[in-house]
């Protein structure tokens, strides 16, 4: 009997482990990987999705994306870019050199908070002593907010720093979880992936060949298992230069920044923007040259700039 897309008895479940346009690679519970195509003109499937798919010869068709626990994405004026779904945490990897953007770090943290995904910050290139000390000091407010911040030297130039203590600590944080690695180009993402998954380059080549029929086009996001039991996974994502947050309501922005959120109960008005209102609990705690405060002037500037950007796009 000829099967139709509505023949649900033929449906199988799987995990999306790589994607490229309308083509995705789905891993079955047995470990086989099958190229699947989206039904319709546009794929709504992302790496990390659990899907139901319909076999057709040696490939398949995605029939349904199962309910997601979460989805991490960014959105600018033109398009929405989804990173991955069903995450336990996001590892934001930055480096002491080139100097990281605190605004970009904040944007990634806000997106993670909005999606309900736990973030971990890792600062790479601990072997560059002076740049690292400056960067570590710059991250002090984030440690005070309660974020986990790890020092790393993934490719140490100083042999005295060739200790695996920090990378072992990071491996402990990754254990048993699905973690997306986010970070700008040059932060050391490829080094980290290759350190934990030596066969990553070969796996990537296989996936790229499968999804693109041999064309020299790499997949944008890739899933890697760290253990044979398939309990721990790393998802590698492309580097980014911009991180749009147009999906965030500006009036909710402060609630997604822990240092500001803690001070909101002190505001006189329930709809305080924390920019100009009298009796604002946030504004009274901004540091200045004259007095100390619970919020650094730089963090407050990032907030005010983001608020203005999001307000302009929404109204």
How are strands sequenced across the largest beta sheet? 1-2-3-5-4
**Architecture (CATH level 2) name of the largest domain:** 3-Layer(aba) Sandwich
At CATH level 3, the topology of the largest domain is Rossmann fold
Fraction in beta strands: 15-25%
Total of helices: 8
Uncertain runs are 1-5, 213-218
- Cα end-to-end separation: 56 Å
Number of strands: 13
Task: Name the CATH homologous superfamily of the largest domain.
Answer: P-loop containing nucleotide triphosphate hydrolases
Radius of gyration: 22 Å
- Our count of domains comes out at 3
Structural class: alpha/beta
Q: Helix amount, in percent?
A: 25-40%
What characterizes the major β-sheet?
5 strands, mixed, barrel
Helix/strand order: EEEEEEEEHEHHEHEHHEEHH
Under CATH at level 1, the class of the largest domain stands as: Alpha Beta
């Amino acid at each position: 009997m000829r099967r139709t897309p509505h023949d649900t008895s033929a449906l199988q479940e799987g995990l999306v482990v790589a994607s490229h346009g309308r083509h995705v690679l789905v891993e079955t519970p047995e470990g086989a990987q099958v190229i699947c195509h989206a039904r319709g003109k546009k794929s709504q499937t992302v790496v990390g999705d659990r899907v139901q798919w319909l076999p057709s010869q040696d490939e398949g068709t995605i029939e349904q994306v199962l309910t997601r626990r979460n989805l991490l994405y960014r959105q600018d004026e033109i398009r929405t870019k989804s990173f991955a779904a069903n995450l336990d945490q996001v590892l934001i990897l930055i480096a002491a050199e080139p100097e990281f953007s605190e605004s970009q770090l904040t944007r990634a943290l806000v997106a993670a908070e909005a999606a309900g995904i736990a973030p971990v910050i890792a600062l790479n290139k601990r072997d560059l002593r002076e740049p690292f000390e400056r960067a570590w000091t710059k991250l002090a407010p984030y440690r005070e907010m309660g974020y986990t911040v790890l020092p790393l030297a993934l490719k140490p130039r100083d042999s005295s720093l060739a200790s695996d203590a920090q990378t072992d600590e990071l491996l402990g944080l990754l254990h048993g979880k699905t973690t997306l690695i986010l970070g700008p180009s040059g932060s050391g993402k490829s080094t980290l992936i290759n350190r934990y998954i030596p066969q990553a380059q070969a796996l990537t080549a296989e996936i790229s060949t499968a999804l693109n029929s041999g064309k020299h086009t790499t997949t944008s996001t890739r899933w890697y298992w760290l253990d044979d039991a398939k309990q721990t996974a790393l998802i590698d994502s492309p580097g980014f230069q911009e991180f749009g947050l147009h999906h965030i309501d500006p009036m909710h922005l402060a609630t997604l920044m822990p240092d500001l959120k803690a001070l909101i109960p002190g505001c006189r008005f329930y709809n305080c923007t924390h920019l100009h209102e009298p009796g604002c609990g946030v504004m009274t705690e901004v540091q200045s040259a004259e007095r100390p405060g619970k919020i650094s002037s730089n963090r407050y500037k990032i907030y005010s700039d983001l608020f203005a950007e999001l307000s302009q796009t929404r109204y």
